[in-house]
């Protein structure tokens, strides 16, 4: 059905609500008079789609409207007409589930006499229905002689406890209204019964079970509309003083998550938690794992058929229609909807959308209750579960309840505090689900609840910029924030939210900003937006945030407020608003702290507009923007991956309306962001996408008014599977925010440098020194961060001429508003380091001794002010500009608010005197005025920095300190003319600061060094030129990164001229090949030379030593490396930083650990040793190796990591023993051992550091490699861990676990990820590089060498046909045909035998082995043994038969020849990756070799025929016959 029809089906009101046009945006609204190119169309909302016309202008802006400037130039989501905008994603054809087809709950009818259900092992006490003295409903004596008519309004007798049983309710009875007065109680018997009623009012008590007595029977309360009773009273209404106790049978857990992906067509699902208590016939919901759940509803309601004894497998009565992902990154939720107590509206409420509601004004304890067709659409106060102005609800609760199909909300807390909501499930909900109403509710606990399929009421809150849209209270939207309806809506942060999950909705978790309470609580004297966050821990959200480009799965923003001038009318603005968080006592600023949060399938994962947030242990997957945090913000221990393995997520879909995908976007104003200990994964360089290409870090570049100061810092960033070119992105625009983008990388990990760096934007202004490098793909400079340098900011003000930011006076960044440039001292001509400045105030650059020269073509300013917005105390800024000779100056440093600290700045006699001063001297040389500007600090600068774990963002002043420069010039205007002089830039100030040290030594490189390259000949003398690297970087960058001295650079012969290696010999290495004939020697580790080259291993020492792959790696004709005296070839490797080995020696650095560990300056420092000898390297500190040994220091990590005292400490390898192969990345084996990396799989798989790590073994022996974590192999075996994938994958504990194999045998090592070798083989993964490199699945994938038998589980296979020889195989058996429709003879006839090499199929027909191959069992790709396939009667399955699985067990070994031909029934078998046959057809997958040879999707793809007639039929139909060249799918891979 179409999108509009789908919305109607789920009960959404399509009315827009009362949308208020923001008057501040009038300058951007089209009126029809715009000339072509002066306007564009933008999708204000992506679903339901809304398109707005906007002018391409730069309006006067406030802080909340900074993204409106020239919006039509932003590069995404821009269309030339409304038709084009709407057509971009016009009527979304929803092919998902129609929610109106969801099944209703089932319930048993009332039967008299009734028998109670068994209570099982439940221990119960104080059951209300067992207490003495109860009056029976059907007894006339209870009523004074006559039982009242059900059609009357029934009030229980005063001070009476009445028992209502099954026999009290004749079949077909419908009670009009039942009132329980104060002092009386209505108690339900423990019998299955169904009560139909119009209204139930409780002033006394209503009890079904008790706190220690869960009902074992089924109770159904169905509420009906009744003439004469207000629909609002169609409720279970608990009055003040009333008590409600509903305690249904407990089913724990009430929801869990998938343990593995449930594919479409599956009727059994695997769960993470045991649900052994769930019962057949109960209903469950499986949440969607696609992004836009309202566009394609894949939330499925299923019925339980059975539960496995361990509770971890759930069997369903019908197969699933869609895949629900359950991979390692995230998993779909599975929630139980059914409960033993059911409170529901009747079927007529579907059309009126006025269902039942439970309203508590007294006290209630509800457990195990389901509400269905509940809540009343847009009726304030009529919600399924509603605590109304209870105030202190200590002891009250709703636990393990559910809401299924609600017309308005789930669980509402209105002026109620200290309530417990736990283990509840809400599904298919209109409006906010878990709803905290007025902003005064505090100390409530919402723990382990699930909210799913939550629907916006009206049109979603969206907009074209940060201002969002404003909605007003109306009849169709009484709560305007329902335009952003979310799973959890929290108006006061001082509540505890833990372990909850939200699927769908506008957002999963939504915290709006309330400047004051609303509604009945408006007079309470608190500021909800300033209350502290009590707890936010362990929550997850997904499949939301797609209705607006600023929306997030977690959204902290928008503002809800009342207008007292309009009768307290309620308004909601969805845009940029910030929290003013304080401590509980309101005396000190505080931070929102969010811990252990996971989000996936979102526009923005975490979206907060400020002011103070700390986000720790955060995970985000399948996400357009990993996180956006305004104000002061810390993001720590995060993992952000742009792409998961969920190939069916429909993420990101069309890119047209999406902002560029990024891990994090650095903002341009009013933020202080620290990102540390964080991993970004899978960000790839995609230049073909243009403006839509992704990046890890993305800058904001639209504004000339708002320009970044120093606002962003990183430390310990890991880049996993990220391309270097995609690390950062700055869009080049003629705006201040584009020119002044910057961030500070505290350790170089984010920029892939060896030390701290400053990243600056594209203008040469940011090229601070010769050792800076320019990243072309980033459009940014990267410079080593030197001591005394900080990113700083000044506001250059010429009153009346320049425009201060945030005052509404900004001008567009057009050429006529440019006023000059700022330049670094000392660089002129083509080397000038300049940046354009405009009338919009604000210049950001780097402080220290570089000097800032301001040049105005209009001449010399008569008066100017330089406001020190961000000049850290202790730093300096050397300011200069030009003036005519003879100009006199009156200069002052003025504190605006502390006049007593202001001082006059006086003239110095020399530039050197001024530089040595304290900021109160200036110097004029007759042309240039110089001022050393210093912020001396005062109370305003105390504690203004934002720091976490030694990483800081420096604070700033707000218009409080400035230097004023008044001149003696006399002319009209703001400037006095001066003649232009080319290169009028002062000389550099003498002195260069040393590099800033790293705050700590990084033990794990976030990105390895570029792959080693083949050795190339040294250019002839006199012809020394650069050979550019082949990894995408330039020689200038290599030098800037300090990599010139790296061994792999020398071996590759890269950058000889730039790195000053002309005339030197490249690094040595083995592996010579004859000069006359050069051929490849194939590796003996199971991989090929092509793979070695693809993995970047051609230049590795161990490759050269073995002599492998000379031709493929381009080492032919390379002369053998010439070694120097004593075969040592000892030369200097210059260390990074630009200083020579001679300087290092002169400064006494030869004994420094970093110099020795890096192998730098060996010749100059005298640390060359004869070949084969091992000598001591003395450690720093002045103590000898003998002393270190005597003190027991030989085993200390720092000693080993530095390579000190090897001879004394016995660390020299003996002759003939194994030695270390140094790993890539530049770190030594000693460092790897010190950092605990010896047990890492990549280190062991690569054979690195065997000697240092103690993994040398005698030939043919098998020993244990101890696993990480401190537990021994004996302990691992005792705990049953020997079969764990991580233990096998890492090669740990082989001896203890009995995985040592005799010579010639070959076994499988299971790959990580939870999928078996059989699955990997079936999915065509055997020949992928990571499988071979990791040594995974050697037996199953037939990578064992000739003569080696292969062991896969309990099944012994014979060698790969490609490697087998006559005489090795038994003399019996026949061909094993590959999965699919075609026989081995047809494969042979069509020339497809080469495609089967290495698969084991058709060995006899293809002539790769002797005939008579045994008929063995091949298990199905899901890893189930063939015995289980037989036991579950799956042998007859087309999937098993056509796949050739379990032939022996299923008795299907076929004779050779004509008898082997058979006709196979035609039906669809989907591919194992979960893609449906319909999708294969429309995506062009039917002709893929994998699909054809695998015999998948025969019916849909039109390949139904018999085996014998297959080739003829396909040929006559015009379909191409498969050829060997076409067989490039997984079978041939």
Query: Count of helices?
Result: 29
Biggest β-sheet: count, sense, barrel?
A: 18 strands, parallel, barrel
Name the helicity range: 10-25%
Unreliable stretches: 1-16, 61-65, 1000-1023, 1064-1077, 1117-1129, 1345-1374, 1409-1414, 1454-1465, 1505-1533
| Terminal CA distance | 41 Å
Mean pLDDT, to the nearest integer, reads 80
Shape by Cα distribution: globular
Query: What's the β-strand tally?
Result: 73
The chain-level structural class is alpha/beta
- Radius of gyration, in Å, reads 38 Å
Strand content: 25-35%
Give a written overview of the molecule.
The protein is globular. It has 29 helices and 73 strands. The protein starts with a helix and ends in a 17-residue tail after the last helix. The protein is an alpha/beta fold and 1533 residues long. A hairpin with a 4-residue loop joins β53 (773-775) and β54 (780-784). It has an 18-stranded parallel β-barrel. Strands 57-56-59-62-66-65-64-63-69-61-55-58 form a twelve-stranded mixed β-sheet.
Keywords, separated by commas or semicolons:
1533 residues; alpha/beta; 29 helices; 73 strands; disordered N terminus
Offer a quick outline of the entry.
With 1533 residues, this protein is α/β, with parallel strands linked by helices.
Itemize the secondary structure elements and their pairings.
Layout (H helix, E strand, L loop, with lengths): L2 H7 L8 E3 L18 E8 L2 E7 L22 E2 L2 H7 L46 E2 L16 E3 L5 E4 L9 E7 L4 E4 L4 E10 L2 E4 L10 E5 L11 E4 L4 E5 L7 E3 L10 E3 L12 E4 L13 E8 L5 E4 L16 E4 L4 E5 L3 H4 L4 E4 L2 E5 L1 E6 L10 E8 L4 E3 L2 E5 L4 E7 L2 E3 L2 E6 L3 E3 L8 E3 L2 E6 L14 E3 L15 E3 L5 E3 L2 E3 L5 E5 L21 E3 L2 E5 L7 E12 L5 E5 L18 E17 L3 E18 L1 E11 L20 E5 L4 E11 L13 E5 L12 E9 L7 E2 L6 H4 L2 E4 L11 E4 L12 E3 L4 E5 L6 E7 L20 E7 L9 E5 L4 E4 L1 E8 L4 E2 L1 E8 L6 E6 L6 E7 L7 E5 L3 H5 L5 E4 L3 E6 L12 E3 L2 E3 L7 E7 L7 E2 L58 H6 L6 H6 L36 H6 L6 H6 L34 H6 ...
Parallel strand pairs: 5-7, 6-8, 7-9, 8-10, 9-11, 10-12, 10-13, 11-14, 12-21, 13-22, 14-23, 21-24, 22-25, 23-26, 24-27, 25-28, 26-29, 27-30, 28-31, 29-32, 30-33, 31-35, 32-36, 33-37, 35-38, 36-39, 37-40, 38-41, 40-43, 41-43, 43-44, 44-45, 44-46, 45-47, 46-48, 47-49, 48-50, 49-51, 59-62, 64-65, ...
Antiparallel strand pairs: 1-34, 2-3, 2-4, 15-20, 16-19, 17-18, 17-20, 18-19, 34-42, 41-42, 51-52, 52-54, 53-54, 55-58, 55-61, 56-57, 56-59, 60-70, 61-69, 62-66, 63-64, 63-69, 65-66, 67-68, 72-73
């Amino acid at each position: 059905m179409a999108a509009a029809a789908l919305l109607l089906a789920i009960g959404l009101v399509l009315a827009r609500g009362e949308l208020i046009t923001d008057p501040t945006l009038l300058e951007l609204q089209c009126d029809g008079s715009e000339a072509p190119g002066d306007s564009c169309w933008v999708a204000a909302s992506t679903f339901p789609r809304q398109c707005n016309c906007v002018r391409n202008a730069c309006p006067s802006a406030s802080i909340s409207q900074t993204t409106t400037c020239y919006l039509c130039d932003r590069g995404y989501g821009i269309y030339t007409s409304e038709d084009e905008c709407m057509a971009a994603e016009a009527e979304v054809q929803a092919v998902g589930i129609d929610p109106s087809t969801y099944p209703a709950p089932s319930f048993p009818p009332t039967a008299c006499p009734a028998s109670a259900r068994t209570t099982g092992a439940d221990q119960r006490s104080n059951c209300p229905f067992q207490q003495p003295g109860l009056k029976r409903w059907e007894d006339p004596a209870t009523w004074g002689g006559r039982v009242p008519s059900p059609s009357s309004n029934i009030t229980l007798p005063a001070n009476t406890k009445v028992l209502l049983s099954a026999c009290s309710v004749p079949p077909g009875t419908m009670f009009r209204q039942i009132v329980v007065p104060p002092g009386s109680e209505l108690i339900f018997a423990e019998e299955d019964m169904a009560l139909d009623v119009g209204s139930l009012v409780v002033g006394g008590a209503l009890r079904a079970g008790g706190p220690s007595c869960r009902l074992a029977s089924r109770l159904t309360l169905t509420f009906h509309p009744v003439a004469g009773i207000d629909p609002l009273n169609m409720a279970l209404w608990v009055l003040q003083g009333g008590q409600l106790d509903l305690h249904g049978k407990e089913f724990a857990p009430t929801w869990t998550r998938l343990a593995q992906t449930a594919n479409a067509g599956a009727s059994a699902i695997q769960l993470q938690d045991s649900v052994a208590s769930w019962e057949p016939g109960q209903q469950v919901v499986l949440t969607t794992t696609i992004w836009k759940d309202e566009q394609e509803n894949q939330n499925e309601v299923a019925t339980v058929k059975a539960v496995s004894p361990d509770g971890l497998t759930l069997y369903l009565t019908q197969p699933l229609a869609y895949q629900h992902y359950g991979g390692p990154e995230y998993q779909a939720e599975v929630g139980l909807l059914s409960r033993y107590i059911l409170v529901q509206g009747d079927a007529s409420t579907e059309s009126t959308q006025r269902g039942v509601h439970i309203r508590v004004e007294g006290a209630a304890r509800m457990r195990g209750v389901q509400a269905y067709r509940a809540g009343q659409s847009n009726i304030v106060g009529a919600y399924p579960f509603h605590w109304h102005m209870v105030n202190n609800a200590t002891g009250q609760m709703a636990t393990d309840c559910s809401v299924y199909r609600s017309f308005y909300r789930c669980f509402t807390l209105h002026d109620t505090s200290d309530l417990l909501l736990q283990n509840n499930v809400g599904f298919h909900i209109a409006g906010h689900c878990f709803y905290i109403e007025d902003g005064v509710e505090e100390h409530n606990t919402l723990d382990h609840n699930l909210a799913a399929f939550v629907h916006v009421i009206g049109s979603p809150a969206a907009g074209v910029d940060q201002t969002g849209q404003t909605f007003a209270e109306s009849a169709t939207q009484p709560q305007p924030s329902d335009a952003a309806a979310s799973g959890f809506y929290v108006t006061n942060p001082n509540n505890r939210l833990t372990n909850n999950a939200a699927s769908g909705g506008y957002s999963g978790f939504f915290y709006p900003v309330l400047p004051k309470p609303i509604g009945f609580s408006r007079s309470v004297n608190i500021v909800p937006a300033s209350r502290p966050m009590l707890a936010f821990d362990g929550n997850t959200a997904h499949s939301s945030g797609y209705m607006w480009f600023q929306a997030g799965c977690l959204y902290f923003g928008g503002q809800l407020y009342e207008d007292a001038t309009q009768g307290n009318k309620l308004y909601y603005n969805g845009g940029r608003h910030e929290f003013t968080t304080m401590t509980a006592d309101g005396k000190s600023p505080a931070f929102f702290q969010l811990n252990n949060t996971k989000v996936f399938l979102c526009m923005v994962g975490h979206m907060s507009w400020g002011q103070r947030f700390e986000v720790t242990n955060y995970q985000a997957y399948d996400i357009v923007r990993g996180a956006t945090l305004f104000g002061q913000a810390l993001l720590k221990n995060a993992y952000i991956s742009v792409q998961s393995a969920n190939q069916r997520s429909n993420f990101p879909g069309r890119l047209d309306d999406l902002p560029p995908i990024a891990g994090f976007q650095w903002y341009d104003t009013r933020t202080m962001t620290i990102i540390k200990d964080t991993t970004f994964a899978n960000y790839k360089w995609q230049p073909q996408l243009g403006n839509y290409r992704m990046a890890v870090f993305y800058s904001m570049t639209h504004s000339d008014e708002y320009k970044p100061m120093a606002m962003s810092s990183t430390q310990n960033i890991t880049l996993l599977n990220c391309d270097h070119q995609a690390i950062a992105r700055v869009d080049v625009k003629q705006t201040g925010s584009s020119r002044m983008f910057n961030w500070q990388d505290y350790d170089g990990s984010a920029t892939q440098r060896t030390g701290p760096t400053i990243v600056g934007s594209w203008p040469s202004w940011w090229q601070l020194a010769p050792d800076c490098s320019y990243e072309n793909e980033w459009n940014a400079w990267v410079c080593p961060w030197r001591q005394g340098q900080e990113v700083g900011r000044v506001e250059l003000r010429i009153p009346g001429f320049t425009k201060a930011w945030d005052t509404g006076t900004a001008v567009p960044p057009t050429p006529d508003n440019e006023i000059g440039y700022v330049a670094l001292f000392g660089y002129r001509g083509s080397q000038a380091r300049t940046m354009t400045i405009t009338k919009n105030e604000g210049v950001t650059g780097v402080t220290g001794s570089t000097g800032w020269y301001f040049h105005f073509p209009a001449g010399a300013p008569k008066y100017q002010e330089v406001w020190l917005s961000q000049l850290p105390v202790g730093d300096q800024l050397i300011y200069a500009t030009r003036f005519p000779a003879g100009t006199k100056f009156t200069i002052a440093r003025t504190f605006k608010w502390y006049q007593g600290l202001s001082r006059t700045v006086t003239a110095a006699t020399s530039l050197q005197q001024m530089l040595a001063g304290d900021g109160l001297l200036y110097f004029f040389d007759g042309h240039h005025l110089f001022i050393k500007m210093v912020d001396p600090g005062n109370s305003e600068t105390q504690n203004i920095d934002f720091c976490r774990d030694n990483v800081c963002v420096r604070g700033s002043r707000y218009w409080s300190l400035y230097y004023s420069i008044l001149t003696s010039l006399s002319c009209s205007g703001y400037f006095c003319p001066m003649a232009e002089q080319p290169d009028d830039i002062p000389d550099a100030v003498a002195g260069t600061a040393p590099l800033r040290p790293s705050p700590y030594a990084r033990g794990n490189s976030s990105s390895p060094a570029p792959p080693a390259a083949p050795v190339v000949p040294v250019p002839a003398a006199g012809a020394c030129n650069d050979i550019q690297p082949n990894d995408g970087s330039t020689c200038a960058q290599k030098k800037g990164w300090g990599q010139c001295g790296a061994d792999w650079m020398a071996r590759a012969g890269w950058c000889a001229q730039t790195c000053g290696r002309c005339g030197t010999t490249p690094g040595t290495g083995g592996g010579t090949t004859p000069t006359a004939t050069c051929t490849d020697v194939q590796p003996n580790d199971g991989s090929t030379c092509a793979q070695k080259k693809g993995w970047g291993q051609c230049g590795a020492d161990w490759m050269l030593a073995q002599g492998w792959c000379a031709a493929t790696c381009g080492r032919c004709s390379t002369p053998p490396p010439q070694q120097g005296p004593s075969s040592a070839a000892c030369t200097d490797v210059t260390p990074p930083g630009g200083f020579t080995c001679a300087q290092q020696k002169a400064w006494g650095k030869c004994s420094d650990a970093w110099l020795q560990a890096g192998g730098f300056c060996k010749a100059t420092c005298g640390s060359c040793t004869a070949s084969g000898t091992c000598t001591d390297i003395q450690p720093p500190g002045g103590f000898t190796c003998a002393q270190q040994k005597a003190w027991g220091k030989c085993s200390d990590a720092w000693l080993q990591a530095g390579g000190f005292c090897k001879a004394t400490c016995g660390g020299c390898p003996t002759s003939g023993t194994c030695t270390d192969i140094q790993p890539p990345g530049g770190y030594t084996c000693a460092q790897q051992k010190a950092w605990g990396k010896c047990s890492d799989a990549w280190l062991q798989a690569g054979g690195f550091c065997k000697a240092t790590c103690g993994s040398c073994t005698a030939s043919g022996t098998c020993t244990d490699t101890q696993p990480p974590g401190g537990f021994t192999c004996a302990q691992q075996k005792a705990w049953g861990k020997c079969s764990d994938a991580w233990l096998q994958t890492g090669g740990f504990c082989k001896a203890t676990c009995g995985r040592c194999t005799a010579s010639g045998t070959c076994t499988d090592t299971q790959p990580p990820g939870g999928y078996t070798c059989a699955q990997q083989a079936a999915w065509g993964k055997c020949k992928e590089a990571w499988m071979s490199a990791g040594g995974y699945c050697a037996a199953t994938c037939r990578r064992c060498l000739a003569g080696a038998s292969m062991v896969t589980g309990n099944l012994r296979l014979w060698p790969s046909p490609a490697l087998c020889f006559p005489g090795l195989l038994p003399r019996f058996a026949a061909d094993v045909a590959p999965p699919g429709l075609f026989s081995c003879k047809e494969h042979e006839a069509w020339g497809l035998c080469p495609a089967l090499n290495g698969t084991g199929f058709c060995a006899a027909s293809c002539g790769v082995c002797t005939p008579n191959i045994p008929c063995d069992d091949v298990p199905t790709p899901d890893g189930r043994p063939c015995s289980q396939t037989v036991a579950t009667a799956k042998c007859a399955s087309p999937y098993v038969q056509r796949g050739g699985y379990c032939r022996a067990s299923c008795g299907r070994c076929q004779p050779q020849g004509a008898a082997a031909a058979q006709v196979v029934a035609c039906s669809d078998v989907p591919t194992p990756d979960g893609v449906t046959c319909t999708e294969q057809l429309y995506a062009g997958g039917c002709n893929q070799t994998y699909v054809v040879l695998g015999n998948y999707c025969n019916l849909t793809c039109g390949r139904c025929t018999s085996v014998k007639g297959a080739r003829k039929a396909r040929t006559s139909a015009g379909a191409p016959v498969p050829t060997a060249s076409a067989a490039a799918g997984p079978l041939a891979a």
